[in-house]
Amino acid sequence: MAYLHDDVLDKGLEELRLNAQTIHACSSEPASFAAVAGASLGSTSVTAGAIADRAAGGREVTCTPQAGATYATGGTATHYAIVDDTNSRLLATNALAASKAVNAGDAVTIDPLAIGFPDAVSA
Question: How far is the C-alpha of 122 from the C-alpha of 24, rounded, in Å?
């Protein structure tokens, strides 16, 4: 039976929790920190909460975008990218739950995101 202690799963989430600074709404999925600039429609600061158990098993952290920023460019937001600006690192990216048409000047609104690891399973 495969097994990973919660501490093993938590270390990756701890990196995200401690270093996530900005979340970008992107028109495509960036593959690197440098690519975020070309795909970003707008960004805002992000806060990652405490590490907790996932409902489906495993561990997760919820990243909550902060209010107050506006989109710099109009387009269709299809993905998010969470970055560590200090160290120029792309920490996480994925598709948004639903694509969203945005206009320059609109408030950046991204729902809180649960990012996590499932429990280990035997192959």
Answer: 36
Read off the pLDDT of residues 69-123 as tens digits, 9 standing for 90 and up. Answer: 999 999 999 999 999 999 999 999 999 999 999 999 999 999 999 999 998 887 7
Residue 52 structure tokens: 């907790």
Residue 102 to residue 96: CA distance in whole angstroms: 14
Distance (Å, whole) CA 52 – CA 35: 31
Q: How far apart are CA 88 and CA 51, in angstroms?
A: 24
Percent of the chain with pLDDT over 90: 86
DSSP 47-99: EE---EE-TTSSEEEEEEEPS--B-SS-EEEEEEEEEETTTTEEEEEEEEEEE
pTM here is 0.92
Residue with tokens 């975020």: 36
- Long-range contact set of residues 51-55: C-beta below 8 Å, sequence gap at least 24: 51/10, 51/13, 51/14, 51/17, 54/114, 54/116, 54/117, 54/118
